[in-house]
Amino acid sequence: MTQKLQEIFTQFLENKPIFAQRAALTISFTPETIPHREKQIADLGRILAPALRGGKPSNVFIYGRTGTGKSLVSLFVCSELKKAAKGNDIKPIYINCKMKKVADTEYRLLAGLLKELGEDVPFTGLPTDQLYQTLFKKVDEKEQVVLLIIDEIDALVAKTGDEILYNLTRANSELKKAKLALIGITNDLGFIERLDPRIKSSLSEEELLFPPYNAVQLQDILRQRASLAFVPGVLEDGVIEKAAALAAQEHGDARRALDLLRVAGELAERAAEAKVTIKHVDAAQDKIDQDRVLEIVKSQARQSQAVLWAIIQATEGKKAVESGHVFDAYNKICIAHGLKPLTQRRVSDLIAELDLFGIINTKVISRGRGGRTRLISTNLSSLTLTKLKNTLMEIFI
DNA sequence: AGGTATTCACATGAAACTATTCTCTGAGTTAGG
DNA sequence: TAACTCAGAGAATAGTTTCATGTGAATACCTGT
After folding, report:
1. Among A113, A150, A160, which residue's Cα sits nearest to residue A135?
2. Could you check: is the Cβ of residue A371 within 7 Å of any atom of nucleic acid strand B?
3. CA A285 – CA A246 distance, rounded (Å)
4. Which one, of A233, A270, A251, lies nearest residue A262 by Cα?
5. Which of strand C's nucleotides are less than 7 A from any protein C-beta?
6. A351 nearest nucleotide via C1' and CA
């Protein structure tokens, strides 16, 4: 066993390295320049500039789809701003509301904020308004401008309502020395329209839109990162173009593009090949898809997994099945595994949910006297499907 | 033939119920003064 | 005595069920040629 492992390690060391700095292809990496976002950077800079003189910058609302550089740009501008502020105190705080257990409730958000400010609060037990008091007090301790970047702000509001935002936006009237500016980030374009008008007007004093990257822009980004990440010359011609093209189809998602390139590199490295080829990019696309699907499936509730298992069993050898058949199969599975079967109504919702995750495809059709159904089909590559089957089988032994 | 009504097999909505998780209070405990 | 801990009440939430209503087109059934 150990011998085998040692062999793997020596083998690894013998291979020509592919990565010079793999981290350059991850989301947490902050490059020195951000291509094709010059306008947004300048705009945000102008909006936040008053902070340099200790004034309160306008609240900003940033939207754009995933992987369009919203978080990156806001963090970048804020850190530059901090550098530029010599005498004045500027304190950027970044909070991501999508992260479970970090900031997905009002209490946790506030607790997280206080922690950033160096004030430890028990993770449960205190009344929320007391937290607000502590927060305001802490912020107001000295003359400073706090820039609160709330990422995925729509997730927060969806879970906890918009009261938090209201409380935070009116914080400034309670602060004497310090100033608090909010930077809300979301990829839900309709989000702001659904907000309470009072909050809407104060939160979006300024708005910034981040358009998706096109394939050419993605290529630029990839080239910049690839030159840092890879050993020169390991990328075959066309690899970057291919990765950019694939990501451009996914509404210009730069994160996706970087992932593709990174995974392609990893696959080449693991296969001990000297060059990263287009083949690897294709394989990477498949693998990312696979990982995503498996990740989602594993995190689903048992009932939802049972429904998916039923769908897969029912589709076996067919293009598509009707929801009625799936429900039958689901009931059998429940009996076989001692699960309490849910009602058809609920199963219908679970199916719709799986559709939303992109694991299955559904289409409501009417068959005249044959009634109305959902036609359900899986749209996964055969490799992914096999893996998925194995995963589900493990769950339902 | 052309038009209307019926019917099927679920989809989709709303309300009600339930179990779990959060929030908050107050009593008990601890540690420092 | 202030600060902390913890149990339990009550509120909020998420997950489901129950009941009700909606849907689109194949088919059955008319109706007048």
Report:
1. A113
2. yes
3. 8
4. A270
5. 5-7, 13-20, 22-27
6. B11
CATH number at residue A352: 1.10.10.10
Last residue of a domain, one of A296, A328, A345: A296
Residue A281 near residue A243, CB atoms below 8 Å: yes
Question: Cβ of A324 < 7 Å from strand B?
Answer: yes
Distance, Å, A345 CA → B16 C1': 15
Give pLDDT tens digits for A66-78: 889 898 999 999 8
Distance of A110 CA from B23 C1′ (whole Å): 14
Is A1 inside any structural domain?
no
Q: Which of A210, A245, A262 is the C-terminal boundary of a domain?
A: A210
**Distance in Å, residue A364 CA to nucleotide B6 C1':** 21
Point out the least confidently predicted range of A171-175, A193-197, A268-272, A318-322: A193-197
Per-residue pLDDT reduced to its tens digit, A138-179: 777 778 888 888 887 777 766 665 667 777 777 777 777 888
- pLDDT, one tens digit per residue, over A175-227 is 778 888 888 888 877 677 667 677 777 777 788 989 999 999 999 999 999 99
Q: A123 to each of A90, A106, A127, A151, A181, how far by Cα in Å?
A: 27, 12, 11, 21, 25
Residues A266, A335 within the same domain? no
Q: Measured CA to C1', what is the nucleotide nearest A122?
A: C4
| Boundaries of domain holding A316 | 300-395
Chain A residues 284-313 with Cβ under 7 Å of strand B are none
Flag whether the pTM goes above 0.90: no
Nucleotide nearest the Cα atom of A366 (by C1'): C24
Q: What is the mean pLDDT of chain A?
A: 83
The total number of structural domains in chain A stands at 3
